[in-house]
């Protein structure tokens, strides 16, 4: 589903953010992406999101090289992706329901489909009863779950997250990570960049580890007893 072949990313100043990165995630697989600050985690995610292009090498999504994708095809391609960031960027003058519905409104879904999808997404994150609330009435963990509902409301095949638990305490972080894992159980391919090494060790999932732009580890932890 996601395949990197000898991918290099150099930014303007000649700085090499990714160097010779190769790995593959099959459909429905879950992996953490770890590494020190500046290791290249966000850069790797940005290549999949097509916010950046690889300098060298290939990024293939569903067997298709992103370098062959024409600019006009990018919006269509991005509909396969859901994205969760550290800060959820919810609109505070709208209800939880409206926040989750927003991507569907922008994409021109019909009102009935919007209602059905928003309720399904809120249900998946355990917030079906909170649709009418304002995001400020929710705890920070609940707000992050609204962000996740918004990221999956269009049922993407791939879910990417960049430090999604950065602002949360350990218990809430574990809850959020379990939620991501549940999406991989229903066939979504999930890649989560995180600093939270303790949590990664506890979850028994595949871990791709970057060091100064190089993939230095690709292993699976045994889940904590
Ligand atoms: N737009 C850019 N222009 C130039 N250099 C960049 C750019 N974005 C990132 N970099 C550099 O590329 C390297 C990798 O950055 P990246 O943001 O991918 O790291 P990261 O692993 O996500 O770090 P963090 O854990 O702090 O978020 C860093 O040295 C960074 O300074
Ligand atoms: Mg980053």
Protein model, in words:
With 225 residues, the protein is of the alpha/beta class. The chain folds into 2 domains: 1-80 and 157-225, Rossmann fold; 90-155, no CATH class. It has helices at residues 41-48, 74-78, 96-106, 111-124, 140-152, 170-185, 197-203, and strands spanning 2-10, 16-25, 30-34, 56-61, 64-65, 81-85, 158-162, 189-193, 206-211, 214-220. Strands 6-7-8-3-9-10 form a 6-stranded mixed beta sheet, with helices on both faces. The protein is globular and about 50 Å long. Magnesium ion binds at residues 41-42, 162.
Brief overview:
This protein is α/β, with parallel strands linked by helices and 225 residues long. The chain contains seven helices and ten strands.
Amino-to-carboxy terminus distance: 31 Å
Domains (count): 2
- Which CATH architecture of the largest domain would you pick? 3-Layer(aba) Sandwich
**Radius of gyration from CA coordinates:** 17 Å
**CATH homologous group name of the largest domain:** P-loop containing nucleotide triphosphate hydrolases
Which CATH top level class of the largest domain fits? Alpha Beta
Instruction: Provide the structure class.
Output: alpha/beta
Q: What is the count of helical runs?
A: 7
CATH fold-level assignment of the largest domain: Rossmann fold
Strand line-up across the major sheet: 6-7-8-3-9-10
Bound ligands, named by name, code or SMILES: adenosine-5'-triphosphate, magnesium ion
What form results from the Cα inertia axes? globular
Largest sheet, strands/sense/barrel: 6 strands, mixed
Strand content: 25-35%
Tell me the series of helices and strands, N- to C-terminal: EEEHEEHEHHHEHEHEE
- Strand tally, please? 10
């Amino acid at each position: 589903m996601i395949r990197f072949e000898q991918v290099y990313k150099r930014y303007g100043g000649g700085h090499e953010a990714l160097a010779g990165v190769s790995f593959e995630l099959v459909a429905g697989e879950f992996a953490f992406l770890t590494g020190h600050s500046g290791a290249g985690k966000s850069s790797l995610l940005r290549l999949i999101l097509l916010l950046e292009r690889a300098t060298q090498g290939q990024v293939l999504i569903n067997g298709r090289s992103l370098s062959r994708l024409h600019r006009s095809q990018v919006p269509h391609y991005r509909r396969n992706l859901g994205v969760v960031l550290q800060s959820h960027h919810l609109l505070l003058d709208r209800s939880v329901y409206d926040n989750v519905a927003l991507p569907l409104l922008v994409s021109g879904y019909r009102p009935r489909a919007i209602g059905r999808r928003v309720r399904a997404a809120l249900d998946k994150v355990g917030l079906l009863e909170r649709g009418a609330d304002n995001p400020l009435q929710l705890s920070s963990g609940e707000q992050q779950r609204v962000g996740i509902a918004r990221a999956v409301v269009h049922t993407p095949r791939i879910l990417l997250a960049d430090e999604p638990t950065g602002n949360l305490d350990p218990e809430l972080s574990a809850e959020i990570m379990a939620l991501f894992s549940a999406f991989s159980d229903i066939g979504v391919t999930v890649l989560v960049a995180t600093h939270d090494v303790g949590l990664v060790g506890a979850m028994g999932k595949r871990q791709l580890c970057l060091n100064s732009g190089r993939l230095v580890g690709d292993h699976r932890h045994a889940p904590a007893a």
